[in-house]
Sequence to fold (329 residues):
Amino acid sequence: PGRLLDFVSNDNLYLGLIELLVLDEADRMLDMGFVDEIKDIISHTPYDRQMLLFSATYPEGIQALSKEFQQQPKEITIKAEQTKNTIIQRFYDVPKMKDKDEALLTLLGSKASESTVIFCNTKIACYEVLEFLRERGYHALALVGEMEQRERDQVLVRFSNKSAAILIATDVASRGLDIDDLDLVISYDVTRDPEVHVHRIGRTGRAGKEGLALSLMAASEIKKMFAINEYMNTTFDTSDISKLKSPYEPKKPNMVTLCIDGGKKSKLRPGDILGALTADGGIPGSDVGKINMFPNQAYVAIARPSARQALKLIQEKNMKGRRFRVRRL
Fold:
């Protein structure tokens, strides 16, 4: 919104002929603090234009925006699926908020998970948990609002191709997150919105597979659990985390991601990368994982034992008649 408003303010863009205005993921834009910019942009559009507003949740800020700028709007609600059969849910009692870090280690150590998403309510909490886990040997990444698109792409690529086992995210930043074989979701903070809780747990247990959703609940958050119970029309009993055994130590992910400074705009294709890695006595094809192509970068997952050789192969071989810079993420 800020960039668009700059164009409008500098008379580089005229919105006076707009007939249809669409606000997609409106709650995300409000959470990121763009409400004033959005209102300013809307004020430059005709009064009689049509306005469509899409939002995963419907907090007070969205209601106020609708009331201010929409005339007699029709509200269409699509109820979220509440799948119970394939998702096992548990709430673990934690005496105080400050005890959650150690409780999180207990949960991670009790499950041999290769793909875990941890949800926090704030960006600050995400970075604090990230630092805590990295200091203890976990390969973790953070996904928060206001990240540059390239940084966000790298995080999602590394998590989806199994180069990192843990993703710590806010609900807003994880919007649209779709990861195959996500076997564990942990709510480090219990959300205030029961519908958001359903969105969180719905990222595991897909395609008929069994998923596991665990929540760390301090005494101050018990009312939030009651609200979730009511919304999902069920009753969750709390579990004693001290009874869990933690036999699993953090281990290095099986894959490593290489970033190539060339992509679709350089006419680079996945086949070019695969050929450079495997031809003429290169690494086995089975050691090459997912290849993600972007306009200016390409990312390739490599089995950890072959990562050093793969890096050297791409550095030394020509693709599309030239050499590309490559680095390990």
Summary: The first helix runs from residue 2 to 9. Residues 262 and 268 are 7 Å apart (CA to CA). The first strand starts at residue 20 and ends at 23. The chain has a mean pLDDT of 89.
